[in-house]
């Protein structure tokens, strides 16, 4: 396979009680796997088959914005594959601490780390329907961005530092309709802020 499903970077029980094995069985084992499998089918005998996943996302996004109907399905599955692969790496058991330099940059942009987390949660809650909430590095400026469905800042050249999935399948098993609770737990107990700090520095 050109675009295999990545293993989780921790055991599927490692984020309990905040994110359950039942959620991972469904979210990684079924939803993410389905995007990866569908992408493999769609790229057979196309130029996309020889590209990296990021290249597929950027090219199919450009083609689908130009009105190519075949590119839409490829973009949706490729972007969901990429977004989920990144999302798993944005969490770590117990969460982690941001670097001093990252905290300084956050303070400068948002006032404090606490205010940033509130704004991140509010943006995720404010994403109507399915989508994602991101912290991105836009040429050195930190920005909170929300995207609908499969849309991803990778397609438009922004550098993602962290993402939370706000599709219902990401939280319904553990939090039912309480998206704000899920996002607060994500920012306080799951987010790998050390990894985000490294991406910001890199
Ligand atoms: Mn998802």
CATH superfamily heading of the largest domain: Iron/manganese superoxide dismutase, C-terminal domain
Helix percentage? 40-55%
Strand content: 5-15%
Q: What small-molecule ligands were found?
A: manganese (II) ion
Quote the CATH topology of the largest domain: minor pseudopilin epsh fold
Examine the secondary-structure arrangement and name the CATH architecture of the largest domain.
3-Layer(bab) Sandwich
List the helices and strands and how they pair.
Blueprint: H1 21-43, H2 53-65, H3 69-88, H4 100-110, H5 113-126, E1 131-138, E2 141-148, E3 159-165, H6 168-175, H7 179-190, H8 193-201
Antiparallel strand pairs: 1-2, 1-3
Provide key terms for this protein:
202 residues, mainly alpha, Helix Hairpins, minor pseudopilin epsh fold, 2 domains, three-stranded antiparallel β-sheet, 8 helices, 3 strands, 54% helix, 11% strand, globular, binds manganese (II) ion
Describe this structure in words.
By secondary structure, this protein is mainly alpha-helical. The chain folds into two domains: 21-89, Fe,Mn superoxide dismutase (SOD) domain (Helix Hairpins); 100-201, Iron/manganese superoxide dismutase, C-terminal domain (minor pseudopilin epsh fold). The chain is built from eight helices and three strands; from the N terminus they run H-H-H-H-H-E-E-E-H-H-H. It has helices at residues 21-43, 53-65, 69-88, 100-110, 113-126, 168-175, 179-190, 193-201, and strands spanning 131-138, 141-148, 159-165. A three-stranded antiparallel sheet has the order 2-1-3, sandwiched between helices. It is globular. The structure holds manganese (II) ion (MN). Manganese (II) ion (MN) binds at residues 27, 31, 84, 165, 167, 169-170.
